[in-house]
C-alpha cells in the first residue's frame, strides 16, 4: 500500500461519519457498496475524503489487485511478486530519499498521526447514526427510537453530569487525592446510550472506564473513586445494581460475562448480559475465547466495544486489519458499527441487541466508533503519539453539544432546563470534592478478614506478623518523641 493511500484512508476514518446499513456485512450483504443511504450526513465529493484530500491513490490500490488476481494460478503468482515493485515506484519521494528521513523525526505530531485501521482496498464501513454531528435528527431503516422530550432531556442530563464527575476526578488526581484516573471524556454517548438501554435485571461487566454506565446503574459515583484512591477494592455490591466491579485486567471481564450469560440461559431467565471492552482488548485471547463460547452456547450476551481508536498509544490499525464489528462474522454472530458519539443511535442499537439476546437469538457485537478525547489515564501523555489536528476534528463531533443543538432546534428544551442541569452539575462537583477528601482510610488489618470463611492457621500467622510490623512504626515514633 502506498503512503498516499494510507493517508487518504486516514482522513476518511477519522471523519467518524457513516451510512445506514451497518448490519449488512453480518448477514452476508455488502456493508459498503458506495450508496448514499440517505442518513443526513454531509456528502463527500467523489474522489475525495471527508477532509477534501485526493483519494486517487487509494482507488488505485483497491482496484488493481483484484484485476490482476483473475486468471491462472501462475498469473496470480506473478502479480504477487510484481505488486511490491509497483507500489514502491508509486510511493512518495520520501521513500526514494532516505536522507530526508531524519527531517520527519523532528515533527513527531505529524509523523504519528494515526492512519486507517481498515484493510487496504476495502470501502469505509457504514455506521448507524440517528443524530448527525450538526445535531440533525435522521432515520435508519433497521434501528430507531421513539423518545419523549423528557427522555431525551434525561440523556442530556446524564451525559453532562457524567462528564462533570469525570472532570472532577481528573482534577482530584492532579491534586494528589487519587492515585490514578481513567477518563471517559468523549465517550459519554456510547456509555449513556447503551446503559439506558438495559433493564434492571440485566447484568453489566465493565472495564475500568465505564463511569457513565455505572451512573445509569445507580452506583454512587463516589464509590468509583475509592478504588482509585486505594481505600477499597470497589466499594459497591455488584449484585445490588447488577453492575460488576471494575476490571483492570484487559479483556478478562468479557469471559466472565460470557460465563454468566451461559448460566442465565441455563436458569431459563429472560435477562441479558453486556460486556464492555475497548479496541485494544479486542486483541486479547480472552475476548476471542468469549466469542467462541458465546456463539457455540448461544449465550444471551452483548459485546459492546468502545473503539476510541487508541489502545494507549497503539492505533486501531495495529489491532485489526478489518473493522472490529466485522470480526463477529468469523464466530457466527452479527456485528454492527454505531456512531459512538450519537447517544440516540447507541441507545437504539443496544436496545435491539439486548432484546435479541433475551429472546434466545444469541450474542451480538456492537462497535461504538468514538474517540478518546483525553489521555488513556492520568499517567499518559497523548501529545507524544497523536496530533492536535486529530483531536480538533473530533471536538466538532462532541456528543453533548450535538444533542444540545438538537434539543434547542427541535424546541424540546428551554434555557431554564439547561440552567438547571448546569446548577446540578456544580452541586455534583462540590459533592465529589467533599466526599473524596473526607473518605476514611481503610482498616489496615481488614485484608485478612475475608480470605477464608472459617479462618486459617496460616492467615492467623500472617495477620500477627503484619500487626507486629505496623507496631514497629509506632514504637519508632514514640522513641523519636523522647
UniProtKB/TrEMBL annotation:
CDD domains linked to this entry: TPP_E1_PDC_ADC_BCADC
Record-linked Gene3D superfamilies: 3.40.50.970
Record's compositionally biased regions (Basic residues): 57-66
Pfam families: E1_dh (PF00676)
Keyword Oxidoreductase: yes
Low complexity: compositionally biased ranges: 32-42, 67-78, 85-110
GO molecular function: magnesium ion binding; oxidoreductase activity, acting on the aldehyde or oxo group of donors, disulfide as acceptor
GO process annotations (BP): branched-chain amino acid catabolic process
Keywords (A to Z) from UniProt: Oxidoreductase, Pyruvate, Thiamine pyrophosphate
All residue ranges annotated as the Dehydrogenase E1 component domain in the record: 157-428
Chain intervals for the UniProt region annotation (Disordered): 1-126
Domain of life: Bacteria
Required co-factors: thiamine diphosphate
Record-given protein name: Pyruvate dehydrogenase E1 component alpha subunit
Source organism per UniProt: Streptomyces qinglanensis
